[in-house]
Each structure stands twice: as C-alpha cells, then as structure tokens.
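Why should sequence recovery work at all? Because a backbone constrains its sequence more than one might expect. Tight turns favour small or flexible residues, buried strands favour hydrophobic ones, and helices have their own preferences. The token representation captures these environments compactly. In the example below, the structure is given first.
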C-alpha cells in the first residue's frame, strides 16, 4: 500500500516540476478551451485556498506541523487496518500520498504549487494539483467504505 502512496507522491512532484519549469507564476495554458487550463499558482494556505491570504505568524511552520501530525496519524491508522477493509486502506493511502506531495512543497518552498484550473464561463473552481485530487478521491473511498460498512452493520443487526 505504501508503494501506492509513493507513486502518488512521484506523479504529484513530477507534474509540479513540469509546471514550474514551463510556466511563470500566474501564466496559464488552455488544455480544454472554456473548461480546463493549467495555471501556475502558489498556495500558502490550506485546501481550496483556505487561509491563503491570512496573515498568521509562522504560518508555513504551522501548516507543516499540522500536515506532519495528520500524516503520522493516518499512517499509523492505515497500518492497523485489517485486510478485510481494502477500500479504507486504498482511501487512506491515497490521502497519505497526496498529503506527502503537498507537504514536500511546504517544506521546500513554504507554499503548495497548484495548477489545475477547472472553469465554466466566469465560474472557476479553486486551482488544485494531483495531490489534492488524490486526497479527494481518497476521501471518497472512505465515504464509500463507511456506506458499505454501515450497510453490513445494518444487515447483521
């Protein structure tokens, strides 16, 4: 399972390196016109730009510490899951891989590179990256796992 997290980390860091190499800050390239651009942005906050503009003392160190704590907790919990919980393991491992990708950015630069810009007309979703997508898919797996677990619990009672 940890190989899966390492693969996510590799893809995340590789795509961010390509963006940093080929785009200047705030430059964008249209991938699918009127729907998807790659746009280089730097996010010093949390997911979806939360706290990006907040003036908090020691924000990079605080964000890094929170991410490290969460990563350690998730790794410990994942290692204790039984083989009968594969969807939960996949979800948590995807979250770990994504968290490692964003943590690597925070440690090396103090911000996270975001570049996937999905939009429709004048509506824009927050820019995100492969790590964010992995965390989101992992959370979806956990929700699905809980729904299945709840169904099994209901059937046995």
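From this structural description, the recovered sequence reads:
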């Amino acid at each position: 399972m940890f190989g899966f997290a390492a693969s996510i980390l590799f893809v995340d860091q590789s795509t961010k390196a390509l963006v940093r190499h080929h785009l200047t800050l705030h430059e964008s390239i249209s991938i699918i016109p009127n729907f998807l651009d790659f746009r280089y942005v730097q996010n010093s906050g949390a997911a979806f730009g939360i706290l990006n503009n907040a003036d908090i003392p020691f924000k990079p160190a605080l964000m890094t510490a929170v991410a490290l704590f969460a990563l350690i907790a998730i790794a410990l919990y994942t290692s204790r899951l039984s083989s009968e919980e594969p969807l939960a393991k996949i979800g948590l491992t995807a979250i770990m891989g994504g968290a490692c990708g964003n943590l690597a950015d925070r440690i090396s630069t103090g911000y996270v590179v975001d570049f996937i810009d999905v939009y429709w007309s004048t509506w824009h979703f927050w820019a995100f990256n492969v790590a964010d997508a992995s965390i989101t898919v992992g959370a979806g797996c956990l929700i699905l796992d809980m729904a299945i677990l709840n169904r099994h619990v209901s059937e046995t009672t």
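A few observations help interpret the result. Strands lie at 28-32, 36-43, 112-120, 123-124.
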